Amino acid sequence: MEVPLRAALLAWLAADPALSGQLNAIVEEAPSRTALPWLAVAASASADWSAKDVRGREVRIALELHCRGDQPGSAASLTAAIETRIAALPPDQAGFRVITAQFLRARAEQRGANTRAVLIEYRFRLLAD
Fold first, then answer.
1. CB 1 within 8 A of CB 126
2. Is the peptide bond before 37 cis (omega within 30 degrees of 0)?
3. Helices 76-87 and 2-14: angle between axes, nearest 10 degrees
4. Per-residue pLDDT tens over the stretch 16-56
5. Sheet of 92-93: strands edge to edge?
6. pLDDT at 114 exceeding the cut of 90
7. What is the spatial distance between Cα 23 and Cα 35, in angstroms, rounded to a whole number?
8. According to the CATH classification, is domain 2-128 in 3.10.20.30?
9. So where are the chain's domains?
10. pTM higher than 0.85
Protein backbone atom coordinates (compact mmCIF):
# COMPACT_ATOMS: atom_id res chain seq x y z
CA MET A 1 0.00 0.00 0.00
CA GLU A 2 3.01 2.29 0.40
CA VAL A 3 3.69 2.72 -3.33
CA PRO A 4 0.02 3.25 -4.28
CA LEU A 5 -0.29 5.84 -1.47
CA ARG A 6 2.76 7.71 -2.74
CA ALA A 7 1.27 7.76 -6.26
CA ALA A 8 -2.17 8.84 -5.01
CA LEU A 9 -0.70 11.59 -2.85
CA LEU A 10 1.42 13.01 -5.67
CA ALA A 11 -1.53 12.89 -8.08
CA TRP A 12 -3.74 14.62 -5.51
CA LEU A 13 -1.18 17.38 -4.97
CA ALA A 14 -0.59 17.83 -8.72
CA ALA A 15 -4.35 18.08 -9.35
CA ASP A 16 -4.58 21.23 -7.24
CA PRO A 17 -4.53 24.19 -9.65
CA ALA A 18 -3.05 26.55 -7.06
CA LEU A 19 -0.17 24.20 -6.20
CA SER A 20 0.56 23.16 -9.76
CA GLY A 21 0.54 26.82 -10.72
CA GLN A 22 3.19 27.63 -8.13
CA LEU A 23 5.40 24.53 -8.41
CA ASN A 24 7.44 23.56 -11.46
CA ALA A 25 7.28 19.87 -10.53
CA ILE A 26 5.45 17.55 -8.12
CA VAL A 27 7.33 14.29 -8.49
CA GLU A 28 8.34 10.95 -7.01
CA GLU A 29 12.01 11.85 -6.61
CA ALA A 30 14.16 14.96 -6.83
CA PRO A 31 14.18 16.16 -10.43
CA SER A 32 17.58 16.56 -12.03
CA ARG A 33 16.82 19.58 -14.21
CA THR A 34 13.81 21.48 -12.96
CA ALA A 35 13.77 25.12 -11.93
CA LEU A 36 12.79 25.92 -8.37
CA PRO A 37 10.31 25.60 -6.75
CA TRP A 38 9.51 21.89 -6.82
CA LEU A 39 8.14 19.23 -4.47
CA ALA A 40 9.27 15.59 -4.28
CA VAL A 41 8.98 12.55 -2.06
CA ALA A 42 12.18 12.45 -0.01
CA ALA A 43 11.52 9.10 1.68
CA SER A 44 8.82 6.75 2.90
CA ALA A 45 8.58 3.73 5.16
CA SER A 46 5.77 1.41 6.16
CA ALA A 47 4.90 -0.97 8.97
CA ASP A 48 2.10 -3.44 9.61
CA TRP A 49 -1.17 -1.92 10.84
CA SER A 50 -3.45 -4.88 10.13
CA ALA A 51 -6.55 -5.95 12.04
CA LYS A 52 -7.89 -9.49 12.43
CA ASP A 53 -9.64 -9.60 9.09
CA VAL A 54 -8.07 -6.78 7.03
CA ARG A 55 -4.59 -5.88 5.91
CA GLY A 56 -3.33 -2.50 6.98
CA ARG A 57 -0.21 -0.35 6.82
CA GLU A 58 1.12 2.64 8.65
CA VAL A 59 3.05 4.65 6.06
CA ARG A 60 5.31 7.58 6.83
CA ILE A 61 6.07 9.90 3.96
CA ALA A 62 8.50 12.79 3.90
CA LEU A 63 8.01 15.40 1.19
CA GLU A 64 10.71 17.93 0.40
CA LEU A 65 9.95 21.37 -0.99
CA HIS A 66 12.83 23.22 -2.68
CA CYS A 67 12.42 26.93 -3.34
CA ARG A 68 14.22 30.26 -3.36
CA GLY A 69 14.23 32.87 -0.62
CA ASP A 70 16.53 34.31 1.95
CA GLN A 71 13.82 35.13 4.51
CA PRO A 72 12.70 32.45 7.00
CA GLY A 73 9.05 32.85 6.01
CA SER A 74 9.62 32.80 2.26
CA ALA A 75 8.22 29.25 1.89
CA ALA A 76 5.50 29.60 4.55
CA SER A 77 2.50 30.14 2.27
CA LEU A 78 3.52 27.37 -0.12
CA THR A 79 4.13 24.97 2.78
CA ALA A 80 0.72 25.84 4.26
CA ALA A 81 -0.96 25.19 0.89
CA ILE A 82 0.71 21.77 0.65
CA GLU A 83 -0.39 20.87 4.19
CA THR A 84 -3.96 22.03 3.50
CA ARG A 85 -4.14 19.92 0.34
CA ILE A 86 -2.79 16.81 2.11
CA ALA A 87 -5.38 17.25 4.88
CA ALA A 88 -8.10 17.14 2.20
CA LEU A 89 -6.89 13.86 0.62
CA PRO A 90 -10.00 11.73 -0.03
CA PRO A 91 -10.05 8.64 2.20
CA ASP A 92 -11.27 6.27 -0.51
CA GLN A 93 -8.41 5.37 -2.84
CA ALA A 94 -7.88 2.56 -5.34
CA GLY A 95 -7.21 -0.58 -3.29
CA PHE A 96 -7.13 1.03 0.16
CA ARG A 97 -8.79 3.50 2.50
CA VAL A 98 -6.97 6.26 4.38
CA ILE A 99 -8.07 5.99 8.00
CA THR A 100 -5.87 8.80 9.34
CA ALA A 101 -3.48 11.32 7.85
CA GLN A 102 -1.44 13.02 10.55
CA PHE A 103 1.15 15.76 10.24
CA LEU A 104 4.25 14.75 12.21
CA ARG A 105 6.90 17.43 11.77
CA ALA A 106 8.49 19.92 9.44
CA ARG A 107 12.03 21.18 9.14
CA ALA A 108 13.19 24.22 7.17
CA GLU A 109 16.77 24.77 6.11
CA GLN A 110 18.55 27.64 4.39
CA ARG A 111 20.93 26.39 1.72
CA GLY A 112 23.46 27.99 -0.56
CA ALA A 113 22.63 30.20 -3.56
CA ASN A 114 19.59 31.71 -1.80
CA THR A 115 17.68 28.40 -1.74
CA ARG A 116 15.57 26.81 0.97
CA ALA A 117 14.47 23.25 1.63
CA VAL A 118 11.43 22.36 3.71
CA LEU A 119 10.91 18.74 4.80
CA ILE A 120 7.30 17.87 5.66
CA GLU A 121 6.57 14.51 7.29
CA TYR A 122 3.22 12.71 7.58
CA ARG A 123 1.90 9.44 8.94
CA PHE A 124 -0.93 7.70 7.10
CA ARG A 125 -2.82 4.70 8.46
CA LEU A 126 -4.39 2.59 5.72
CA LEU A 127 -6.66 -0.40 5.44
CA ALA A 128 -6.97 -2.54 2.31
CA ASP A 129 -10.30 -2.69 0.48
1. yes
2. yes
3. 120
4. 999 999 999 999 999 988 999 999 999 999 999 999 999 99
5. 25-27, 38-48, 56-68, 115-128, 96-111, 92-93
6. no
7. 9
8. no
9. 2-128
10. yes
